[in-house]
Every structure is written in C-alpha cells, then in structure tokens.
C-alpha cells in the first residue's frame, strides 16, 4: 500500500466529511455524530487558531486525517472531567496542550499503520508540551493503539450533552 501523509494548515472539509461519514457509517445515528454535526465540528477545528492537520492519502485517494489545535487558557476542553487523578491536568496556558480533535482513517486502510503515521508526523511538528484527545469508551481498538503510543488516561467526560462517555487521554510531547 503506497501512502502519503501531508501536514496541512488548510484542508478539504467536504472531502474529509465524506471520509468521516464512511468511517463512522454504522454509528451516524448516535448523538456523538449528529449534534453538533460532523461538518460543524470539522469546520470549528479547521477555523481554530493554530489549526494543524496530517492528511493521509493512498495513491490519490483521501484516506483519513488527524486534526487539532492548541488549547487556550480558559478552554472548555476539560469541563466536567471526572476521575482526574493528576493535580493540575486541566490547567492550561499558552503552549501547554495541542488538542487532537478529530482522528479517522477509512476502514480499508485501518490496521496498515496510516493512522499511526499521521498522528506521529503531526505530533512531531508540534511545539506544545503535551497532546490530549478524547476517545469513546467503546472504541477499544483505538484506545489500545494509543496506549502503545504512550497516551495515558487522565479521566472521563461527556464532550457534548447526549454523547457517550469518552476517555480523556494525554501524552507528553517533550
């Protein structure tokens, strides 16, 4: 499988929304994928100050993306975090945390390390102290892969009303 990862400051939102909908086709009925809409979430991330992405291609086919932005002081990212065992984990300052807001790979290219390559290249380009992301508790395959990449579980939260509980993960970048 010949694949390419491109670091980007701007992305094809319509193309990425189509990929996202394919990746999550079986779960699009869940509130997690409807409210706010996928398009809105992708757009909000892409319009955030400091936005960065790693976009994956297999041949000429758009196959997935990792998208995020730096967290500002006073962010709502950590609101309602339960089970935070690390003092100060929710405190933010400029340059502390890069939030990985969206991460997805087409099913036919999963388990071929494209997602690992995208996240690795994106994180190597970051200057923040750490990265954080939320993963649905039921997504055990991704959770296992992230543990192997040294992400640690710092607590749980429900990102938006009606969503499933998500594990909040952090990994040091320095």
List the main descriptive attributes of the protein structure presented here.
single chain, 174 residues, alpha+beta, Aminopeptidase, 7 strands, 30% strand
Order of helices and strands: EHHEEEHEHEE
The helix content, as a percent range, equals 10-25%
CATH H-level homologous superfamily name: Gcn5-related N-acetyltransferase (GNAT)
Strand line-up across the major sheet = 1-2-3-4-5-7-6
Rg on CA atoms, Å: 15 Å
> For the record, what CATH class applies?
Alpha Beta
Describe the biggest sheet? 7 strands, mixed
Our estimate of the beta-strand percent is: 25-35%
Poorly predicted ranges? none
For the record, give the distance between the C-alpha atoms at the N and C termini, rounded to a whole number.
31 Å
CATH topology: Aminopeptidase
SS class:
alpha+beta
Q: Write down how many β-strands occur, each being a DSSP E stretch of 2 or more residues.
A: 7
Choose one word for the global shape.
globular
List the helices and strands and how they pair.
Layout lengths: L2 E6 L4 H11 L14 H10 L4 E7 L2 E10 L26 E9 L8 H11 L5 E7 L3 H9 L3 E6 L8 E7 L2
Organism: Virgisporangium ochraceum
InterPro entries: Acyl_CoA_acyltransferase
Protein name: GCN5-related N-acetyltransferase
């Amino acid at each position: 499988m010949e694949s390419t990862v491109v670091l980007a400051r701007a992305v094809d939102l319509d193309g990425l929304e189509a990929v996202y909908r394919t990746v999550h086709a079986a779960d699009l009925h869940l509130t997690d994928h409807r409210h706010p809409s996928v398009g809105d979430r992708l757009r909000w991330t892409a319009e955030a100050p400091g936005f960065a992405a790693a976009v994956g291609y297999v041949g000429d086919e758009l196959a997935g993306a990792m998208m995020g932005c730096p967290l500002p002081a006073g962010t709502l990212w950590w609101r309602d975090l339960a089970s935070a065992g690390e003092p100060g984990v929710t405190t933010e300052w400029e340059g502390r945390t890069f939030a990985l807001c969206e991460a997805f790979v087409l099913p036919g290219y999963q388990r071929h390390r494209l997602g690992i390559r995208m996240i690795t290249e994106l994180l190597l380009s970051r200057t923040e102290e750490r990265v954080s992301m939320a993963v649905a508790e039921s997504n055990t395959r991704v959770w296992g892969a992230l543990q192997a990449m040294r992400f640690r579980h710092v607590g749980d939260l429900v990102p938006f009303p009606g969503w499933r509980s998500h594990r909040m993960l952090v990994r040091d970048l320095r």
